[in-house]
Sequence to fold (197 residues):
Amino acid sequence: MKQFLNNPLWMMKSGVLFFYVFMLVAQLFPPEGYNILIHNVSQLGPQNYALSWMMRIAFIGSALVWLYALYLNKKTPVLHPWVAYGFLAISVFIIVAGVFQASLDTVPGTINVLEANIHTYAGHGSQIIGLFILLEHVFKSKRSMKTIHLMFLVLLIVWSIFFELSPNVGLWQRILAVTHSTWTLLFLNQYIRKENS
Fold:
């Protein structure tokens, strides 16, 4: 167990699992009027909703696990520096997304539009940096791994277009999230570092 808790790569992957555990629990207690097809994951914990703390734990908790992993990585480097910096930025964005909540029109009460916008921009920022981390893997991989990384990158770009254009935002966001998370769990850090190539 100690070896697991001191492994930066495993802790990075644990942060992903942490998020999904709390997100799935929140999914069992959605706000009134929530529709999994048209509402995104963030809207499981909107402003003025009594159970929004579940999604706050999902966001902030997963980011804190990643920050701990980055601390371990500083002591025993396994991630390429640019990947580590990318996850640092993602962690900050995810904490911001946890502090500032989304809006949901089916939840009564005054909605702070600025807070909802900050949450949205933080979420988009983390997604964009995630794509750059994946792109870093594409550029620095051998042919077999390059193909896998490139396939995930293309899928994520295609899913992102559907996410932006489709009325089923909730569905496409979940497809996007599962695709990116699958890559993180299976292929993060699987490339040749520049200094060894």
